[in-house]
Design goal:
heterodimer, A: 453 residues, alpha+beta, six-stranded mixed sheet, five-stranded mixed sheet, 11 strands, globular, B: 429 residues
């Protein structure tokens, strides 16, 4: 669920600014600085804190095979000593900064922290110094590379990581690296020059969103932001026009694979389809969310057939809203004694999801209510809500976020059936089965974990 | 000595509890209620059952955890299991039960618009669970499955092993989630009988956080739980472990990286040394993080924390491909902070970040509930409420004295590649 920002926001006129702001909730305010930096303020005075988050529209989607992981490295290098803060972490402690971290995902990278709102002005300067610092220290780069490789090794210690990597290759084909956050081989080969090259493409104010959320007053924040960030030079190009993202090749047939891992204590089935995105089929992105929240209800046909029957311990469907092809995922923890029967039932369910009686009006209404409540829950923790907002900004738009509930409420039963026939039923998918070598030997999945003829 | 404060490692369990309005406490027909009014739309309610792993023998490991979750998933007198599920889905009500080392609870979380619906499910779960046999069988299978997935995460397994190692031969060595065999052997009748032992006004307390009227809350509690019996309850104390530096527990697993941990003694939550000690462990955490991650690049994640159980402990940890080097590094930083101590500026930085963390934790109804409950079990919710003030009063001398007085021996645990853990020895402390 979520989407991307449109280009006009980067070159926003006073009129369009007013229009954009008028659509935002009463406690959220947007202004674009002359250098193109979008500044979003979320007012919430329940605790005396301010969270500052900078997001850039890049991430794994801008990877080439030779830069897979450099965004993570690049944003991580911001947390280094710089000319204004010679002892970065210690200086952060002096300002009361907490929850300082970086986040690199499919379509955005982020650097954020939370501090007492009394220190907001200093916090904006602290962020600015980190952003504007030019990394030149090869020793520090080597340290960051080692840390990142260790992080990847930690991930590899989790059994689901093997499935994650295998699914990327199967679902996205020869462009799999545009969905993968990091490749340790690429990370190890990174240089100051390769990071500079990436930074010079995407890390500009006119490709960024600065969010300040918490016990703040928007006019004061806009004034401070203008003072601190207005001399940050914009690029004179749109990186997505300059370096267009190639389209993913569609799947042509079901693709089954088995992943063996001695770390897998429980088997797991993951089925993924290439779903809609916010560029080409925005309406289906709303429908996808409603559909997921119908099927995930415990009264759903899928849950009855898999979980309540004892064939599986859990079954969850989801859709990740993206600008460049969001995946639809069905993740199942099968009963290890009934994997074959479980898979047969899954295939049967996929064939009947477009039936009139597969879901009823009450379930549709429940799904919409659940999504509305989800939004309320997301807004509860303001220091986390900034991540929701930055996600929407990068993969959809702030207007998409604001109109989300209205769009959901308009989704009809016919829309849901169309969504199933367009993206799921009889559509090619990738199906992976993660299991331990012992269980594989016992259940011999090669005999049944394959497409029907 | 490098003076570092890191964001992540100060975020340890109990935080201060101020925020939107003051917390208050009252009794409703003998039931202790801790209530924090807030202005947001999400309401969180927990009924706590004191005792945790001290409530049952080790051969019944997991019975409380299963009973409390089954109370929310296997039907009640008013709602069959399916109706219960449908109602909670329909109104976005999150309800579940769980038990851990010191306590169990049933929690309901909903938006204020649907409080009455959520409260009805909550009261039914506490008072009238039926533990339908067929639903219980499904739930037991799910519990076994989810525990195996939980344990597959090396951090979770390390924590389990650490506490089993340090608290050997005490109730804390019992896994509150249970074992596969123990869970399989539990019947609906067992759970019904166990459930009866939990309903005791002197054993329970309720924490409510949300935008709700106090009088309305009082009446809801009276109506729903007034009939719960009142019997004597005497909590069982678990002694502090005697730690020496020779105890190293290892477990082999085919991992890409190894996980190292060391448990240390810690003052009691209500002890005057507790807050200074926590400040010191925060400083230690920052130094470990900086040394192992930033200086030596030996670890992605390393630090230290305090775990405020009724019998609390502190620990250091690191993920690494150099087990001996990481253990040496942890000990080096521990010795360093014990001998050199903090200074005023460093302590002030720790206090600053501590305040931020406490406010961060004050944003969510469920986090505030958990923090108040933890504090109440460990010694009194007021300690949590006033922790910020206590933090501001801490002096460097208190921190340095607390670290030196309480940290002596270490209990080491290593989860790692079978080849890598061969011959692992504790470094000299």
């Amino acid at each position: 669920m979520f989407k991307r920002i449109f280009l006009f926001l980067l070159f926003i006129s006073p009129l369009s600014l007013l229009q954009a702001q008028s659509k935002l909730p009463g406690n959220i305010f947007l202004r674009t600085l002359p250098n193109g930096l979008d500044v979003l303020v979320v007012e919430d005075n329940s605790v005396p804190l301010a969270t500052i988050n900078i997001s850039f529209k890049t991430g794994s989607i801008t990877n080439t095979q030779n830069t897979c992981g450099l965004n993570s490295l690049c944003i991580g290098m911001l947390m280094k000593n710089n000319k204004d803060y010679s002892d970065f972490f210690y200086n952060a402690g002096g300002l009361g900064i907490q929850h300082m971290n970086t986040l690199s995902s499919e379509e955005s990278v982020n650097f954020y922290f939370t501090l007492p709102s009394l220190n907001l002005s200093e916090g904006l300067k602290f962020m600015n110094s980190a952003l504007r610092n030019k990394a030149t220290d090869t020793v520090e780069l080597e340290k960051s590379k080692n840390i990142m490789v260790n992080q990847l090794l930690e991930k590899a210690s989790n059994p689901s990581y093997a499935m994650y990597n295998a699914m990327l290759n199967h679902l996205w084909g020869d462009l799999y690296y545009r969905k993968r956050t990091s490749d340790p081989v690429v990370v190890k080969s990174a240089t100051i020059a390769s990071l500079d090259s990436l930074k010079n493409k995407y890390y500009y104010p006119n490709n960024a969103l600065l969010i300040i959320a918490g016990d703040v007053e928007h006019d004061n924040v806009f004034a401070l932001a203008e003072k601190v960030y207005s001399d940050w030079n914009s690029s004179n190009f749109d990186p997505f026009q300059q370096w267009p993202i190639p389209e993913f090749k569609p799947l042509f047939k079901p693709d089954y694979f088995i992943v063996e891992s001695p770390l897998a204590r429980m088997p797991s089935i993951t089925i993924e389809w290439q779903g809609p995105d916010t560029r080409t089929d925005v309406a289906s992105t709303y429908t996808a969310d409603v559909f997921s929240y119908i099927v995930n209800q415990r009264s759903s046909k899928l849950n009855e057939a898999l979980v309540q029957s004892g064939l599986a311990y859990s079954a969850t469907i989801g859709y990740l809203t993206l600008k460049h092809v969001g995946p639809i995922s069905l993740i199942i923890t099968p009963n290890p004694e009934k994997i074959k029967e479980c898979m047969e039932e899954v295939k049967r369910q996929l064939q009947i999801m477009d039936r009139d009686d597969y879901f009823n009006v009450a379930q549709i209404e429940t799904a919409k209510r659940m999504l509305n409540i989800k939004k309320i829950r997301e807004e509860e923790i303001t220091s986390d809500f900034v991540h929701v907002l930055s996600f929407w900004w990068a993969s959809a738009s702030l207007n998409y976020f604001n109109g989300y509930n209205d769009k959901l409420n308009k989704v009809s039963k016919a829309d849901l059936k169309n969504y199933v026939t367009k993206y799921i039923k009889n559509k090619p998918y990738c199906a992976g089965l993660l299991m331990s070598p012992d269980l594989k030997e016992k259940v011999n999945p090669d005999t049944f974990f394959k497409p029907n003829n | 000595m490098k003076k570092i404060i890191t964001a992540i490692f100060l975020v340890v369990n109990i935080s201060t509890l101020r925020a939107q309005t003051e917390t208050q406490s009252f009794y409703a027909d003998g039931i202790k209620v801790i209530f924090k009014p807030t202005t947001k739309k999400v309401i969180n309610v927990r009924m706590y059952f004191r005792g945790g792993v001290t409530n049952y023998p080790s051969n019944q490991a997991g019975i409380e955890n299963l009973t409390l979750d089954a109370a929310t998933k296997c039907g009640t007198k008013k709602y069959g299991a399916a109706a219960f599920r449908d109602t909670s889905d329909k109104y976005g009500i999150l309800i579940y039960g769980k038990s851990t080392y010191d306590y169990g609870f049933i929690e309901v979380n909903c938006i204020s618009e649907y409080l009455n619906k959520g409260w009805d499910l909550f009261a039914e779960s506490v008072n009238n669970p039926t533990f339908e046999e067929s639903e219980l069988k499904l739930l037991k299978d799910k519990k076994i499955s989810s525990y195996q997935s939980y344990e597959a995460d090396p951090y979770n397994r390390l924590e389990e092993l650490q506490i089993q190692n340090a608290f050997k031969n005490t109730s804390y060595a019992t896994n509150p989630f249970g074992t596969e065999d123990a869970l399989k052997g539990l019947s609906s009748e067992d759970l019904k009988n166990y459930h009866k032992t939990l309903l005791n006004k002197n054993k329970i307390f309720i924490v409510v956080v949300g935008n709700v009227d106090r009088q309305e809350l009082f009446e809801k509690i009276l109506l729903a739980f007034g009939n719960i019996p009142s019997q004597p309850y005497n909590p069982v104390d678990i002694p502090q472990p005697v730690l020496n530096n020779t105890r190293v527990l290892t477990e082999g697993r085919d991992l890409k990286i190894n996980y190292v941990g060391a448990v240390m003694n810690c003052p009691a939550f209500i002890s005057p040394e507790y807050v200074p000690f926590r400040m010191g462990v925060s400083g230690l955490s920052g130094n470990i993080y900086h040394y192992l991650r930033t200086e030596l690049n030996m670890s992605y994640n390393a630090g230290a924390l305090t775990n405020p159980l009724r019998t609390p402990y502190a620990s250091m940890y690191a993920t690494t491909n150099d087990i001996a080097g990481a253990m040496e590094g942890l000990v080096k930083k521990l010795k360093s902070i014990k001998s050199e101590g903090l200074d005023d500026e460093w302590l002030q930085h720790i206090k600053n970040t501590y305040l931020t963390t406490s406010f961060i934790n004050d944003q969510s109804a469920s986090a505030i509930t958990a923090n108040l409950g933890d504090a109440e079990v460990a010694g009194g919710w007021q300690y949590g409420e006033h922790l910020t003030k206590l933090v501001q009063m801490v002096t460097v001398e208190q921190v340095n004295n607390a670290l030196n007085f309480y940290i002596g021996g270490l209990s080491w645990t290593v989860l790692g590649n079978p080849d890598a853990i061969q011959g692992v020895k504790a470094p000299a402390n």
